[in-house]
Write a structure and sequence with these properties.
The complex is a heterodimer. Chain A contains 13 helices and 16 strands. By secondary structure, chain A is of the alpha/beta class. In chain A, strand 4, helix 5 and strand 5 form a beta-alpha-beta unit. The radius of gyration of chain A is 22 Å and the shape is elongated. Chain B has two domains: 99 residues, Aspartate Aminotransferase, domain 1 (Alpha-Beta Complex), CATH 3.90.1150; 216 residues, Type I PLP-dependent aspartate aminotransferase-like (Major domain) (Aspartate Aminotransferase, domain 2), CATH 3.40.640.10. Chain B is built from 13 helices and twelve strands. In chain B, strands 2-8-7-6-5-3-4 form a seven-stranded mixed beta sheet, with helices on both faces. In chain B, strand 11 and strand 12 form a beta hairpin. The radius of gyration of chain B is 20 Å and the shape is globular. The chains are: A alpha/beta, B alpha/beta. Chains A and B meet through helix 6 and strand 16 of A and helix 4, strand 4, helix 12 and strand 11 of B. Bound molecules: pyridoxal-5'-phosphate. The site of pyridoxal-5'-phosphate has 13 residues of chain B, from helix 3.
Chain lengths: 366, 326
């Protein structure tokens, strides 16, 4: 029997219904006082209601309202992992996820919000794939399925042997978010299954298909080929940009911004001040960024170090956007939110995105 | 249960008996190559149907071959521009070429091709290939006027695939008479209800006629005879088209009642967004086949051909059921 983990964050999503954003830390008490009801039960029920007995898996679940309570109602084999107290916290998620990993789960399903995704990332990293059932109010991380049914389809696809993709977990400052200031950093990357495409036979079936990993390689190759001598390249966060540095054999950071010059690492994980200083020294500079999956932000989420001032100095024509087709096709448009209306305006309109070795897509920035 | 095929934008009816008989009779001399005079006759019929001299018509076994051949013959250009989404044959052929490929995202809800923007991109020898109306959106994505402006650029060569011309009633044909660097492909597979004979043709500007010299595709005799008969009896095609538009309207009214999202279409198919994940598969389980378009839209979107009234009704009932379970 294949082992699948299941962890539910029982308090995720409580803030939203009473106008609070997020339920991290102390705010949960306030939410309860305001009469908030957890939305996880509905979400997890919607997910599990797809269960049929012919599915050959054993669920390893967290105790009581962190999983056990819901799975009990279904006629499927399960095993409870770990212990929890009366109130639960992030620590419980992390600890139990680790225990499940030791017990040999091959995939972890979790229900929660961005905070839960970060806890899961702390424990799981890229060791095994995960599926996120969205329950939080914020949901900025692109690792979540759009709804419980979609999450179920992902599980089905995974069991049938689908491809895996890496998506971002964001770190939103909840304090700031409650004050309507949105700030986010890239927190990490998780592996998630990809829905198997339902393709019908017939005359019009397409030719050979490349995987997303192959596409990243081709993008990296394209950038390496076009990199100019004596120009500064500022590489943004994410796995697509990271593939470029791997191609160049430069050990850059996955989540930060790094400076590359003549195909060598100049400076690693730099902030705005350091970037501005470099821009004074180097006349010709390019920024390489990749949109955040699911939302399409190329500036303003996950890469705040690229401030309006930095973007202005580098100039719109020297911004290179890279993305796999897989990520791009999920987006209607790209977005910017630099915090400076003028800069946002300058960036709007169509922009070319490098999607392969000799392939680009022209897409609108809004 | 009988299979319901709404996935390939075919006509749900057979062409009239006369056309069928013409095809059938051709089998009696199937040991022979297609006589030249029959090919000439077909060219003359197409010439009067398309209102263009026959010297500018290039015949082929299906218009998809012409699209592939066109891209192949012009693949020495520096850059190929296509729309995204577009007809899969256009995209795949463009991917085969060594030239740089620029896909231009068409934005909902109008899916208009941004010609103004493209003007600035034509700084080197460029091939532009568009399906108009566009598959899968069903929209006309560029107008004659917009293309006319682009065609002033001598570095540009254009192919417009008008497979659904008869449904939209709109063509960029006048441009062929004015500019040497544009061609149009059309087909008998759609409005004429003859997908099985595989007969397509191209209406070409001067430069393109030259570039295609030497391409003599041997056309099967039954295809040529079927095409001749279809063009001699083309009133039936007009009835087909009228039926499709009426039935499409009925479907749209039902889709509005069901609160499903659809896009107005100038073709014999509709792009529909349902909110139901993996909708194509769910319908296939009920032997209703529609085209998944998840390469561009979510798995809740499908492209559905207009079938017979009964087929459409069965599709709509199945959709309604799935929507009520949501
Ligand atoms: C846009 C478009 N062009 C061309 C074709 C194919 O035409 P033919 O049957 O002549 O190859 C189709 C059929 O689906 C189509 O959608």
């Amino acid at each position: 029997m294949r082992k699948i983990g299941l962890i539910v964050n029982p308090i995720a999503g409580m803030g939203g219904s009473v106008g609070l954003k997020g339920t991290d830390g102390k705010i949960i008490e306030k939410a309860r006082k305001l009469g908030a009801e957890p939305i996880t039960p509905k979400r997890i029920e919607a997910f599990l209601s797809n269960l049929t007995t012919n599915i050959k898996i054993t669920f390893l679940v967290a105790p009581r309202h962190m999983g056990e309570k819901y799975i009990k109602n279904y006629n499927v084999p399960f095993e409870v992992v770990g212990k929890i107290g009366k109130t639960t916290s992030a620590e419980d998620t992390k600890r139990i996820a680790e225990e499940m990993l030791e017990k040999g789960i091959e995939l972890l399903v979790f229900c929660g919000g961005d905070g839960t995704a970060r806890d899961v990332y702390d424990a799981i990293d890229l060791k095994i794939p995960v599926i996120g059932i969205p329950a939080g109010v914020k949901m900025f991380s692109s690792i979540f399925a759009i709804n419980p049914d979609a999450a179920w389809n992902l599980l089905k696809s995974y069991l049938e042997g689908s491809e895996l993709v890496e998506n971002e977990v964001l770190d939103i400052d909840e304090e700031a978010f409650r004050e309507d200031k949105l700030d986010s950093k890239l927190y990490g990357v998780l592996k998630i299954p990809k829905v198997k495409q339902f393709i019908q036979g017939g005359k019009k079936s397409s030719g050979k298909k490349r995987t997303e990993a192959q596409n990243k390689q081709l993008i990296a190759e394209a950038i390496r080929e076009q990199m100019r001598e004596n120009a500064l390249y500022l590489l943004g966060p994410g796995t697509t940009v990271k593939a470029i540095s791997e191609k160049l054999d430069i050990p850059i950071s996955l989540l930060g911004i790094d400076a590359v010059y003549n195909r060598e690492l100049l400076q690693k994980d730099i902030n705005e001040q350091q970037i501005l200083k470099l821009l004074k020294t180097y006349q010709k500079a390019y920024i390489i960024v990749s949109p955040i999956g699911g939302q399409g932000f190329i500036f303003g989420r996950g890469n705040k170090q690229f401030t309006p001032e930095v973007i202005k100095i580098v100039g719109k024509n020297n911004i290179i956007v890279v993305s796999t087709q897989e990520k791009l096709k999920e987006l209607n448009c790209l977005r910017v939110d630099t915090g400076d209306i003028e800069i946002d305006k300058m960036l709007r309109g169509y922009i070319k995105v490098v999607i392969g070795l000799k392939e680009k897509e022209l897409i609108e920035v809004k | 249960m009988k299979n319901i095929r709404l996935d390939k934008n075919e006509m749900p009816f057979l062409p009239p008996k006369t056309v069928q008989v013409a095809i059938y009779n051709s089998l009696k001399s199937i040991n022979r190559y297609t006589p030249t005079e029959k090919v000439e006759l077909l060219l003359e019929l197409l010439s009067s149907y398309s209102t263009i001299e026959k010297e500018r018509i290039i015949l082929s076994a299906g218009s998809d071959i012409l699209i592939k051949e066109f891209i192949f013959r012009f693949s020495h250009v520096d850059q190929i521009i296509i729309a995204n989404p577009t007809f899969i044959i256009i995209q795949n052929s463009a991917l085969q070429s060594d030239s740089e490929l620029l896909k231009v995202r068409l934005s909902e809800p109008h899916f208009t091709f941004p010609t103004k923007l493209i003007e600035n991109q034509i700084t080197k020898p460029t091939l532009l290939v568009l399906d108009n109306p566009n598959n899968p959106s069903g929209k006309r994505i560029v107008t004659e006027d917009q293309l006319g402006i682009l065609l002033k650029k001598e570095m540009l060569t254009v192919l417009i695939d008008e497979a659904y011309f008869e449904f939209s009633g709109n063509s960029v044909l006048p441009l062929i008479k004015r500019y040497p660097n544009i061609a149009i492909t059309r087909t008998l597979s759609k409005a004429f209800g003859l997908a099985g004979i595989g007969l397509g043709y191209m209406l070409a500007g001067e430069t393109i006629v030259e570039a295609f010299e030497g391409l003599d595709i041997m056309l099967p005799y039954p295809s040529v005879m079927g095409a001749i008969s279809a063009l001699q009896n083309k009133d039936y095609m007009e009835e087909f088209v009228e039926f499709v538009h009426k039935e499409k309207q009925t479907m749209i009214e039902r889709l509005q009642e069901l609160d499903a999202n659809y896009y107005e279409s100038e073709t014999n198919f509709l792009l529909i967004t349902t909110g139901i994940q993996n909708i194509a598969q769910r319908l296939a389980e009920k032997s209703i086949y529609v085209c998944p378009v998840s390469d561009y839209f979510g798995s809740d979107s499908i492209r559905v051909s207009i079938g017979t009234h009964q087929e459409n009704t069965i599709f709509l009932e199945a959709l309604q059921k799935l929507l009520s379970q949501k």
